[in-house]
Structures are given as C-alpha cells and as structure tokens.
Amino acid sequence: MSDGPKLEIQMLQDRVLVKLSPEDGERRSSGGIVIPATAQVARRLAWGDVLGVGNSVRNVKTGDRVLFNPEDQHEVEIQGEGHLVMRERDIHAVATERTEHGTGLYL
C-alpha cells in the first residue's frame, strides 16, 4: 500500500477514532501496590485520545480525551499502531478544557 497515494482517513456519521492512552497498562493502588493490566476486578473503562470524528458527532472533538469500554469497540491497525473505532453513544465521559456540564473532577 505504500506505493500508492497517501489517503487521509475521514470518519463517517457518528463514528469516533480513538487511540488508547499509554497509561492504561499497569497501575498502582493508592497504597503503592502494582496492579497488572491483566487483573480482572470489574470491567475496566479506559481513557483514549480522539484522533477524528464523523460529521454527525456532536459532543466530542478531535483532541479530547474520552472514557469508554475498550472491550465493546472495533480495533483497526493504522501505520502499525492499534486504534479503536466506536460510536459517539459508546463514550461515557469527555475530559476537555470546554466546560458545559462538568463534574468538578479533573484529570
């Protein structure tokens, strides 16, 4: 595919392209105990960075950080890296500088 012209990826309708945040691997408890990424406590939501949105997406913008369930999404490889494609309705929260309906909590 590298022989042909470069094609820009444009998301359609209500789709969002997300790259998983690198810190979604091992994590530490408040007491300093290392919790491996494979530990199953409950279905863990993940944070990711929005790389592109379709023209029907209303509440998420490119560059936002979003919270979602990575198990329910479709994975695609772009330039050798894994990315996720999801519908806007599958996003649980947005971390952004734009405050409209904030919780008072910050990342």
Automatic annotation (TrEMBL):
The record's annotation in SMART domains points to: Cpn10
Q: Which Gene3D superfamilies match?
A: GroES chaperonin
State the source organism's domain of life. Bacteria
A Pfam family found in this protein is Cpn10
Which key words tag this protein in UniProt? Answer: Chaperone
The protein's assembly and partners: Heptamer of 7 subunits arranged in a ring.
Explain the purpose of this protein.
Answer: Together with the chaperonin GroEL, plays an essential role in assisting protein folding. The GroEL-GroES system forms a nano-cage that allows encapsulation of the non-native substrate proteins and provides a physical environment optimized to promote and accelerate protein folding. GroES binds to the apical surface of the GroEL ring, thereby capping the opening of the GroEL channel.
Query: Could you say which protein family the record assigns here?
Result: Belongs to the GroES chaperonin family.
| Name assigned to this protein | 10 kDa chaperonin
Species for this entry: Amycolatopsis oliviviridis
* Organism lineage: Bacteria, Bacillati, Actinomycetota, Actinomycetes, Pseudonocardiales
